[in-house]
Design a protein that fits this description.
This protein is mainly alpha-helical and 155 residues long. It has one domain. The chain is 57% helix and 8% strand. It has 7 helices and 2 strands, in the order H-H-H-E-H-H-H-E-H. A two-stranded parallel sheet has the order 1-2. Helix 3 packs across helix 6. The longest helix is centred in the C-terminal third of the chain and has 24 residues. It is globular and about 45 Å long. The two termini are 28 Å apart.
Length: 155
């Protein structure tokens, strides 16, 4: 957990450096680092929430979560062209990968629940079963709406 928190603090410092920019995007950053503290590590909702509370000043204004059923995510993972990410699971069936995703989904849900309760962070949820183009349009509209509501018109 200490390594994950260290990485998150580095991201927070980078975010402060870029504060004058109109929009700063981090791909996965916080969620990926906390997600890596998976269920098999015996992480609890309380541990995830405690980490988020400590890190709250460093967190972004909004996060995007693409809700995708584990079986759909596993099928997409198995059909990826990027073989380096598949290598550790090359002998796994799609069902085994879906089972792993299903067991780990609670960690993402704990984070999503915390973001949704936050008064200063917005969680944008997208339906992972919709076409990418449709989700892209929904996300663009939501970011535009948030930017118009945000002080200085930036995120």
């Amino acid at each position: 957990m200490a390594r994950a928190v260290d990485s998150l603090l580095i991201l927070g410092r980078a975010r402060l450096e870029l504060r004058g920019e109109p929009i700063v995007l981090f791909d996965q950053a916080v969620i990926q680092k906390l997600y890596l503290m998976r269920v098999q590590d015996q992480v609890t909702a309380e541990a995830i929430e405690s980490a988020l509370e400590v890190l709250e000043p460093e967190l972004s204004d909004f996060y995007v979560m693409v809700d995708t059923p584990p079986d759909v995510a596993a099928e997409r993972f198995s059909s990826r062209n990027k073989r380096s990410s598949i290598r550790p699971f090359k002998r796994w069936s799609t069902e085994d990968v879906a089972s792993l995703y299903g067991r780990q989904q609670c960690v993402l849900q704990w984070m999503a629940d915390w973001f949704e309760r936050s008064e200063v962070i917005t969680l944008i949820r997208l339906d992972g079963q919709l076409p990418i183009e449709e989700n892209g349009q929904l996300l663009a509209r939501e970011i535009e709406r948030l930017a118009t509501c945000h002080p200085n018109g930036s995120l």
